[in-house]
Amino acid sequence: MGRQRGPHAASRCWEWECGALTMADPRGLDSVSGPAPGARRRAWAELLAGRVTRQKPGPGTGQKVQDSAVRLLRSHLDWSGLLLEVEGPPCKKLCLGPLIDHDGPEACSNLSTSFIGSALRDHASQLGVPVAVLSSQMAASSIVRMCAAGAEHAHRVLLDTEQRKKLSSLIEITQYLLAHSMFSRLFFCQELWKVQNSLSLEALWRLHVHNVVSLWELLESCADLQAVVSWLFRNLRLLCEQVEAPCQHTDIARAMLSDFVRIFVLMGFQKNSDLRRNVEPEQMPQVARDVLERMLLFALEALAAGLQEESPAHKAVSCWFSTFSGQTFGSIISTDAPKRFFSHTLTQILTHKPVLRVSDAVQMQREWSFAKMPPLLTSLFRKLFVILSPEELVGHLQEVLETHEVNWQHVLSCVSTLVICLPEAQQLVHDWVARLLARAFESCDLDSMVTAFLVVRQAALEGPSVFPSYADWFQASFGSARGSHGCSKKALVFLFKFLSDLVPFEGARYMQVHILHPPLVPNKYRSLLTDYITLAKTRLADLKVSIENMGLYEDLSSARDVTEPHSQAPQDVEKAILLFEHTGKIPVAVMEASIFRRPYYLSHFLPALLTPRVLPRVPDSRAAFIESLKRADKIPSSLYSTYRHACSTAEKNPENTAPGMKVEPNCVDEPLKLLMIALGGLRAAMTDPAQYDVLSAQIAVISERLGPALGVSEDDGSCEASKIQLSVLAPELEQQEQKVRVVDLLLTSFCQNLMAASSFAPPDRQGPWAARFTMTMCGHALLPAVLTRLCQLLHHQGPSLSASHVLGLAALAVHLGESRSVLPEVHVGPPAPARDLSIPEFFNSLLTCRTAESSRLCLKSVPVYMPLSAYRIIPARLCGGTWFCTAAISYSLCKFSSQSRDILYCCLSPGLIKKFQFLVFRLFSEARDPLSQEDTAGLAWKPLGLPSMDWQRAALCLWRQRTFQELLKEKQFHLTYRDWLQLELEIQPEVDSLSDTERRDFHQWAIHEHFLSQPAAAGGCDGDLETACTVLVDVLLDFCQSSRSHNHSENSDLVLGGCTGNRDIFSRLQEMAADLEQGPAAPYSHSSSRGHFLFRVFRRRLQALASGWDVAARLRKQQELLMYKRVLLSLPPLVLVGSPQVEQPAAPDCDEFFHLVNSELRNFCSQGGALSHDITVHFFRLWWPRLEPELHCRWRRCFQGPLPPELQRLQEAQQFAQSFLSPDTAAPAPGPAWVSAAALHFVIQQAGKESVESALEKLDCQREELLVCLFFFSLMGLLSSHLTPHIRQTSSAKAGDSLKALHVCGEILGFLQKRKISWLVLFQLTETDAGLGRVLLRLAPDEYIRLLPLAFYSLLSYFDKDALIRENAFLHVAVDMYMKLTCLFVAGETSAVSTPANRSQELQSQAGAGAGLGTFSSQMAHPTNGDPVGLIRKARLFLLQSIPQCPKKSFSNMEELLATSGDWDPEVSTALLSRQQAVSDTDLYQEPHLF
């Protein structure tokens, strides 16, 4: 057909009118007049004639005919044929075929559209119809015909290439018609919906996209909206399937789907929609919501039915869920429609088919954990959580539960996803549960109670890293008086009624929690608890679960089934050994089980522990644990004997060891392979490290597979110990091969993932995946093993680590520090002194600066991050010299650049940052110069990946960073003079990276140029050299006391008595002390009023030490004083005696030194009452025989005149003592007596036995005071021979010295008794004594004075037989010495004393055999075999035999003495009181002496 202008127009019009009747039938007009069956066929003329005769023309008949003709044309004219079939000569016809196919040039196309418009306008004018109606019907017919051309592809929603070309041309023509008001959108839409089943979804989309007609207009023009909903749902589902199908038009399909979803969301969920349409206001939003809901219901139904991978339904569901993304809603995110749609969708999910009852949820919820959920459902939840905040999600969840019947599976799955993917929601869920409990008990609301318990149990299934275990929550909520259940009896009844109702449905684990951690119940309501426990135990018995046979470390809140005791016992044993290894104590759970759960302990735990094996030569952790249990009487003797016997047999038959304990490799490797697959999945997801929901989902899978890989079914929570004990010097993972493999896998995975994530985004845009992975590593009791392995790697294998490993471990250390509040402290030691460290401090302790290699590890870094939009990552292969300190600091500064400084304080140890400053100053001379403003401001975080030889550039880049320099302004991060000294003392010069000259230059710069001039507030010395010296000595003493100074190798170079360190620091101290003594008076000289700085340091430190005479306090003080002595020996003697001025008389100031000797050194640095040789030599520089001539010579050279009185006195005392060894008669002793006695004592010590006896014969002419002092010094020598024997002497030599000292004491005692000189006063010395007693107390260590009772009873065999009668005070002294000797033994102070093992026959023969005491004295002469107990036993026997023979006067003040001692020895006390009473009774019957 076609249309022609000119004379033929009328006839052609007639053809169109008749065409309405003929075009459907190719037989032409004759077919119209064909007769019916059995009728006569009439001609066309007859029909016309008949019509004319029947119809009479009248007014208006012509108009009516014209109207009828127009209606007929509108109803039956094929306008699509007009557009698709018009052909002819270029000037006479419309050539639309080439135009639609885009074959003509653009100019011709423009000409054709205008030509078509003109033709349509003319034709509409002739027909008397609007041109818009005519063109709309034409376009609709053309689209339908075009879509029908691809009908061979059933249910197709996309066009092919040919169809797209034709539709594009048609859209171009339509747009021209629209622009010239020649097109009716409403009429066009109505025409399309008449044949909707023939339409293609892509055709409608393109009409919408090119603004021909909007989807809103299409929908509102349809009369049957439900049919439209069904059509759209069907086509959208087909579109989703085609999106996931591999084809070349996938991008078009995705764009279509996104546009349709976005349009439907705006139509259905925008508050202020455009309501100026022809339909009801609520119909169009309802249509949009219906379409979206039907798609969601289809997806949920498919999930519930189970989907197979790669099935069409699976593809459709996956595609539909993918539309819930920011890419889809990015352009409309500013409106409230997406958030309303997501909330509505979440409601639909939570309320979809609420057929499960609460009892079903209680039974089945363990199968709804995050790791077991369908991945499609978890992905949907994660996408919904993107737009909604955690607060909105929890609030919406609460609202839905309160107002709807819910699908418990979806609700609880949503809770799991919430706590896994949104860390902020964890506390919100906890608070929500608390509110539910409060409401439940307030009004006995069962719904709130059910919701609280189900939510808590579901969240607890995800492990302690995201939510407390159910056992911990139940105990915290109901185990104290603060719980809501304790407010009334009504609340208690409600609680136990609820728990009882749960019993038939819940798992055994939860009932075990309720029984082992029961709610706190007042005594008067105890029956409620006992009734429930009885019911729960009955149910457990039905389930064949026994409380008594529970494992020690079973996770009561885990979802797994209860394991058999014989299966759980080996796991309990391994866990107990691990805890014992890290704490050194028997775990509390084991002790409790041995008392309260003996059936399991005896029948399962101990047999698993005491499995026969070949015992190692060096006891391992298992052996030590067994021995600890044996000592605690926790292993029956028979069972222990059987175990030892079986172990002995196992040594002969090792192949029969530990039957049934071997594990097949496949059983171990399979869970490990699954863990490796999960780690590989995480590695693949690192292409977009900011997708926290995706990474969290994969980390949850890793967490689930960690348990089986470690040999446990579930995470057993955090380590039982509140502290982790670890030896830095010897970290070991005994009998934990599988755990070591798992830890290595995790550490390697973390390092690889960090490097992969860093290649796509800097740390601050990687999301919190690293923190979540770190917390996963802290679960499953893995933290001790992780820290031990990190100690092995960083402290012992650091220089051999690769670049990626060091960077990854540094980042891991940062995130462990981030979680320091929830992690236990690390108890470092032994052999280092025990101390508790936080996680960041622990990592700081692993990094030392002693050697060149350890310094490089400490400093190596790779700051590959910059918090700018433009960055690049240097491949890891270039970062061969990456180092730990800088890596940790760089990672922290970039990771938390947008957060507060508080997070940096948690992640980084101040010691780590100070160590970095120390090394930069030490190794880079350019860093010692002040930074210019250009340096600090001009550099940004640059991606430096440097070769191993250029690592200095990386460190300097970080050093010059403005952010880092601002961080150093914080007081806790600033390197002070004290910090510098502490780190420098650790340096070992022989393996230092600096030469001797470079090291000295660095010391000079650091002390004199950097720290000395700095103000004290900044950690400097305020320009005071004395302050610098004081701090140096203080730090030096601290270092010598610390574990860092101890080199535990056998051939270490010992400095300061067992301490290794930077010896050059001592040189700096000597130089500074010399400058201080010889320099100007100010500001570098010390103030004479305050005394010497060195002694001020000593006094302050001694005052800070704990007082007391217990073993620990004494040893600590002794060690401290030994260090003081070492420091004094390293400085010139002028420190001890002061520096006399040349112009003044020589008056050395020794007061401070003498005070130190008299108050402290005499107790710890003296032997037998004499100051130790080294400090005396240092004081005199020469020992006395060589000192005396030197002193005389120097004195006479400087001064004219006699020697000073002190030197003269010492010279005379020495000459007096030497005269006793000469055959000449001894001269009278010079005064004071104690000086002469001391000189005589030292001479006697050096003399032989015969010389001693001859020397003592010359004492007859001496004063009593000299003899008493000599006896005192001999007692000190006796005690010294027991306490401080020479190390290099053999045992026989030691015994000989002790016997000689005892012999000397005995001879002197005998001489005193012979001359009837009272010597008992030496055993009653007090500080209040005047004269000689007070002097003697200051001449001996306090320990020796306390041990005088030991010396007293060591001389029993030398006591005179008449002493008891002659000395009234003897019995009082003897009882007092016995009481003190007993107290010494009880306090453990006699443990270091060894009495003489043997006494020679000669000494035994010297014992007197007088009346009354002869038998006793002979008994006392027997050896004590070095046992203090034997000495106490003999002292007791001596008292019991002596008491009956003592006169009345000996018992004076005895009651007062016994009253102060308490019940020290009942038998001796009774003997004393009985004897005293007997003496009193005898006095009553005696006649009074009247005259």
Instruction: Tell me the quaternary state.
Output: single chain
Q: How far is it from the N-terminal to the C-terminal residue, by CA? A: 177 Å
The share of residues in helices is 55-70%
Describe the largest sheet: 3 strands, mixed
Q: What's the rounded overall pLDDT mean?
A: 75
Stretches with pLDDT under 50, minimum 5 residues: 1-39, 47-53, 82-111, 656-667, 714-721, 860-882, 937-949, 1046-1059, 1081-1087, 1140-1147, 1395-1425, 1487-1491
Q: Kindly provide the radius of gyration, computed on alpha-carbon positions and rounded to a whole number of angstroms.
A: 51 Å
Number of helices: 71
How would you describe this protein?
By secondary structure, the protein is an all-alpha fold. It has 71 helices and five strands. A hairpin with a 2-residue loop joins β4 and β5. α13 packs across α17 and α52 packs across α54. The radius of gyration is 51 Å and the shape is elongated. The termini are far apart.
Secondary structure topology:
Blueprint: H1 9-22, H2 44-54, H3 61-76, H4 79-85, H5 96-100, H6 106-127, H7 131-148, H8 161-179, H9 185-193, H10 201-209, H11 215-220, H12 225-244, H13 250-269, H14 283-305, H15 312-322, H16 326-329, H17 337-350, H18 358-364, H19 375-387, H20 390-403, H21 408-421, H22 423-443, H23 446-460, H24 470-478, H25 489-502, H26 508-516, H27 526-542, H28 565-583, H29 588-596, H30 598-609, H31 621-631, H32 637-652, H33 665-684, H34 692-710, E1 723-726, H35 737-758, H36 769-778, H37 783-796, H38 803-818, E2 825-828, E3 835-837, H39 839-846, H40 852-859, H41 884-895, H42 901-907, H43 910-923, H44 933-938, H45 951-959, H46 962-968, H47 977-985, H48 996-1011, H49 1025-1041, H50 1064-1078, H51 1093-1104, H52 1111-1130, H53 1134-1137, H54 1151-1164, E4 1166-1167, E5 1170-1171, H55 1173-1180, H56 1184-1198, H57 1205-1219, H58 1233-1246, H59 1249-1257, H60 1264-1283, H61 1291-1314, H62 1332-1338, H63 1342-1346, H64 1348-1354, H65 1363-1366, H66 1370-1387, H67 1401-1405, H68 1414-1420, H69 1428-1442, H70 1454-1461, H71 1466-1485
